[in-house]
Design brief:
Chain B: It is found in: Cell membrane. The complex is a heterodimer of chains A (about 425) and B (about 300). Chain A has ten helices and 13 strands. Chain A is of the alpha+beta class. The two termini of chain A are about 30 Å apart. With about 300 residues, chain B is α+β, with helices and mostly antiparallel strands. Chain B is built from eight helices and six strands; from the N terminus they run αββαββαβααβααα. Classes of the chains: A alpha+beta (about 425), B alpha+beta (about 300). At the A-B interface, α4, β12, α7, α8 and α9 of A face α3, β5, α4, α6 and α7 of B.
C-alpha cells in the first residue's frame, strides 16, 4: 500500500511540475532562424590596410561592435559569434528593413577622438574630430595597473608625434573624448603636453574596462573590412509554417509510438510512455537552462534521441518478457531483466555519447549544434529511461499491482516451466 | 504474437555481403560519374523560395524577372501549389534581392520569400568538417568498444557505421536526390543510430559468449545466430518506432526538411540491416580467423 501511494505521488508530482512549467519553458524556448524567420550572415573579415593582420582581439572586438549596432537597430536578441580565425556569424530575427540593416552593419566601426567646437547642445557631446582611428599605431595601445595598484591605465601611441603634441597643447586642461561611431566611450582630461607620441588615459578603469578600451583603440587603428560570405534570409511566415508542420509531425509520430508501446508491452509500456513524456519535458528544460537555440539540426538530434529513448525501454521490456518466458516469477523477471538490460543500454548510450562528444569537439556550425543536442539527449535519456523507468516499474511490481504475466505482454502459454 | 527468429544469419550473410559490396561499387561508380546532386548550398547562386497565397505561373515569374532585369541565364523556375521556387546561378546582390522581393509583392501582396545565398566554399567546408568529425568519432568508438568488448566488435561496428553512411549517400547519388546542408545532419544522425543499434546486438553476443562453450566454428556460428534471433524482436520494434517517427516527418513535416526525412528513413533501414546481416557475421568471420577458438569466452567483461 505504501508503495502504491509513493507511485501515485511520484506520478502526480511529475505531472504537476510538467504542467506547471511547460507553458513557460515552451514560450521561452529560443528558436533558430530556420524556424522563426530572420536572417543570418557569415562575414569574412579582412584588414582594411593591406598587409595588416587580424588578431583574435580585433575579431572579437569587431564582433562586439556588430552586436552593439544590431542591438541599436532594434532587432530582437542578435546572436553574434566568431568562427575560426577570420569569420563572424551574425543572426538576426524579426528584421523589417533588412537592406538598411545589412548596409549599416557592414560598415567598419569608426574610432575618433574629439573635442568641443562650441556648438554642442549638451555637456557630453563633442563635435570636432581631432584624431581618427588610423592616426594610431597599429596594435600600439596597451594597458597596465597604476602606481597605486588600484585602477588600470591605458596607453595609446600615435603615428605622428607633432599632431598629438599640438592637440595636447591646445586642449590642455580640457576634455578629449573617445568615440566609437557616435557613442561616447570616455572623456579624459588632458593633463600634460604630450610630445613623445604616447599618452596615458587614466579614468579609474577596472581591468575589464581598460582591456575593452585598448581593444577598441587597436581595432580603430586597424579596422576590419567585412564581406558577406553567406547569407540566408527566411521569411517569418515560412519559418512559422515549417515549425507548425514539424511539430504536428512530431506529435503524430509520438502518439503512434506511445500506442505501440502500450499495446505491445502493457504495464511496462505504460511506464515507458510516461517516462518518454518526462524525457521530452526534461530535455526542453535542459535546453532552457543551457540556453540552446532550437534549429532544424537540433530537432534532428531530438528525434534521434526519442528513437534511442524508446529503444532503451524496448530493450528492457523485451528482456523482462524473455525472463518471464523462461519461467521466472514476475518480481525476479523484472529484476533480472532490468539488471541485464542496464549494461546493454549503458554501453549503447556511452558509445553514442563518445561519437557525439568527438563531433562536438571538431564540428562547426550545424554539426556542433547537432552533437550538443545529442549529448544532452543521451544524458537525459539515461536519467529518465534507465533510472526513472526502472524505479517506477519496480515500485509497481513490489506493490503487487502486476499480478499476471499478461500485464507484461506475455501469454501464459509462452511460459516454459523451469 | 511471437515468431521464431531462428535462422542461419551467418550463412545467409554471404548474399548480403555480395549485395552490399555490389551496392558499394555501384555507389562509388555513381559518385565518380554523376557525383551528388548538390543543392544550392553547395553551388554558387541564390535560391528563392516564395510562399504565396495565390498560385503563380512560370510565365508570371519570368515576366517579373525580365521587368526587374534579373533574367540571368539558366534561371530555374519551379511553380508549385502555393509556392514558387526560383534558382539563380549567379548570386543576387542585396539590392537585387530587395528589387525581386518588391516585384513579387506586386504579384501577390502576401508573398513571403525565403532567400538563400551561398558561397559554396562554406558548404564544402562543412562537408569536409562533417567527414573528419565522423572519421575521428569512429576512432573514439573503436577505442571504447575495444576496451569494453574487444577489437573485433569495434572493427565490425565501424564497418557497419561507414556502410550505412555510404549507402545513404549512394541512394542519393543514384536517384539524383538533392543534397543540402541538412543532408549532412541526416547522415550524422544515421551514424549515431547505427552505432547504437549495433552495440545492442554485440552486447548480446558478448553475453552469450560468456556462457557458451565454444569449441569450434559451428558453435561460434550458433552463438551469433542465437544472439541475433534473441534480439530480433527488439530490433524490429525499435526500427518500427523510429521509422514511424521519420515517416511522419516525411509525410507531415515541412517541405524544407523533406530530403532530410527521406535520408533518415533510408538510413534507418540500412542501419538495422547492417547490424544484423553485416556487423554480426563480420564479427564471426574475424573471430573465426582465430584458429583455436578458445573453449571459454575471453574475459573481456567486468
Amino acid at each position: 500500500m505504501k508503495r502504491i501511494i509513493t507511485f501515485v505521488a511520484v506520478i502526480v508530482v511529475c505531472i504537476a511540475v510538467m504542467a506547471g512549467t511547460s507553458p513557460t519553458l515552451l514560450s521561452k524556448m529560443k528558436l533558430g532562424l530556420d524556424l522563426k524567420g530572420g536572417f543570418e550572415i557569415l562575414y569574412q573579415a579582412q584588414p582594411m590596410v593591406p598587409g595588416g593582420k587580424i588578431t583574435k582581439e580585433s575579431l572579437n572586438q569587431t564582433a562586439a561592435s556588430l552586436e552593439k549596432r544590431a542591438n541599436k537597430l532594434g532587432t530582437s536578441e542578435p546572436e553574434v559569434s566568431t568562427e575560426g580565425a577570420d569569420r563572424i556569424r551574425l543572426k538576426l530575427a524579426g528584421v523589417k528593413n533588412e537592406d538598411e540593416v545589412r548596409k549599416t552593419i557592414q560598415k567598419p566601426a569608426v574610432l575618433t577622438f574629439r573635442s568641443k567646437d562650441g556648438k554642442e547642445k549638451s555637456a557630453d557631446q563633442y563635435n570636432k574630430i581631432e584624431l581618427n582611428g588610423t592616426d594610431f599605431t597599429e596594435n600600439g595601445a596597451t594597458y597596465h595597473i597604476d602606481e597605486f595598484n588600484k585602477y588600470y591605465v591605458v596607453i595609446i601611441k600615435v603615428k605622428d608625434k607633432s599632431k598629438l603634441a599640438e592637440i595636447s597643447k591646445r586642449l590642455f586642461g580640457k576634455n578629449l573624448a573617445i568615440y566609437l561611431d557616435e557613442t561616447l566611450l570616455s572623456a579624459p582630461t588632458v593633463r600634460a603636453e604630450l610630445t613623445d607620441g604616447t599618452a596615458s588615459i587614466s579614468g579609474e578603469y577596472t581591468r575589464e574596462a581598460a582591456q575593452e578600451l585598448r581593444d577598441t583603440i587597436n581595432l580603430g587603428a586597424l579596422p576590419l573590412k567585412l564581406t558577406e560570405k553567406y547569407s540566408q534570409s527566411v521569411g517569418a511566415t515560412l519559418g512559422k509554417l515549417s515549425l507548425d508542420q514539424t511539430l504536428r509531425a512530431g506529435i503524430i509520430g509520438s502518439l503512434i509510438i506511445l500506442i505501440f508501446m502500450i499495446s505491445v508491452y502493457r504495464i511496462p509500456g505504460l511506464v515507458a510512455s510516461f517516462t518518454l513524456i518526462v524525457y521530452t519535458w526534461m530535455l526542453i528544460a535542459f535546453f532552457y537552462f543551457a540556453g540552446v537555440t532550437l534549429t532544424l539540426p537540433g530537432i534532428a538530434a531530438f528525434i534521434l534521441g526519442i528513437g534511442m529513448a524508446v529503444d532503451a525501454n524496448i530493450i528492457t521490456d523485451e528482456r523482462i518478457k524473455e525472463e518471464l518466458r523462461s519461467g521466472k516469477s514476475i518480481l525476479s523477471a523484472v529484476k533480472a531483466g532490468s539488471r541485464t538490460s542496464f549494461r546493454t543500454v549503458m554501453d549503447a548510450h556511452v558509445t553514442t555519447f563518445i561519437a557525439a562528444a568527438v563531433m562536438y569537439g571538431l564540428g562547426t556550425g550545424p554539426v556542433k549544434g547537432f552533437a550538443f543536442v545529442l549529448m544532452l539527449d543521451l544524458i537525459v535519456s539515461i536519467i529518465t529511461n534507465i533510472f526513472f523507468s526502472r524505479y517506477l516499474l519496480h515500485l509497481l511490481v513490489k506493490a503487487n499491482i502486476i499480478k499476471s504475466p499478461k500485464m507484461l505482454g506475455v501469454k501464459e502459454s509462452e511460459i516454459r516451466a523451469l | 504474437m511471437r515468431f521464431n527468429w531462428n535462422f542461419d544469419y551467418v550463412k545467409a550473410s554471404k548474399y548480403f555481403y555480395t549485395a552490399s559490396i555490389i551496392l558499394t561499387i555501384v555507389g562509388i561508380i555513381c559518385l565518380a560519374v554523376f557525383k551528388l546532386n548538390y543543392g544550392v548550398d553547395f553551388r554558387a547562386g541564390s535560391n528563392v523560395d516564395v510562399k504565396t497565397s495565390i498560385n503563380l505561373s512560370k510565365e508570371q515569374i519570368e515576366k517579373v524577372l525580365v521587368d526587374t532585369q534579373l533574367n540571368q541565364k539558366d534561371v530555374h523556375i519551379t511553380p508549385g501549389e502555393g509556392r514558387v521556387n526560383i534558382r539563380f546561378p549567379e548570386v543576387l546582390s542585396p539590392t537585387q534581392e530587395a528589387t525581386l522581393k518588391g516585384a513579387l509583392k506586386g504579384l501577390d501582396a502576401k508573398a513571403s520569400p525565403e532567400v538563400n545565398t551561398v558561397d559554396p566554399e562554406i558548404a564544402k567546408e562543412l562537408q569536409r568538417n562533417a567527414i573528419y568529425s565522423v572519421l575521428l568519432a569512429s576512432l573514439g568508438i573503436i577505442a571504447y568498444v575495444t576496451i569494453r568488448f574487444e577489437w573485433r566488435f569495434a572493427v565490425a561496428s565501424i564497418v557497419a557505421l561507414l556502410h550505412d553512411a555510404f549507402m545513404v549517400i549512394t541512394v542519393f547519388s543514384i536517384f539524383r536526390l538533392e543534397v543540402n546542408l541538412t543532408f549532412i545532419i541526416a547522415v550524422l544522425t544515421i551514424v549515431g543510430y547505427s552505432i547504437n543499434d549495433t552495440v545492442v546486438i554485440f552486447d548480446r553476443v558478448r553475453e552469450n559468449m560468456r556462457f557458451a562453450k565454444v569449441k569450434n566454428l559451428s558453435d561460434l556460428k550458433t552463438v551469433v545466430n542465437q544472439s541475433i534471433a534473441q534480439t530480433m524482436t527488439r530490433s524490429i520494434n525499435t526500427v518500427f518506432t523510429v521509422f514511424i517517427a521519420s515517416v511522419c516527418l516525411l509525410i507531415f513535416g515541412s517541405e524544407s526538411i523533406r530530403m532530410f526525412s527521406l535520408a533518415m528513413v533510408i538510413g534507418l533501414l540500412f542501419g538495422a540491416y547492417s547490424s544484423i546481416f553485416i556487423a554480426s557475421p563480420l564479427w564471426y568471420a574475424l573471430k573465426g580467423l582465430n584458429k583455436d577458438v578458445k573453449p571459454n569466452a575471453p574475459k573481456s567483461t567486468v
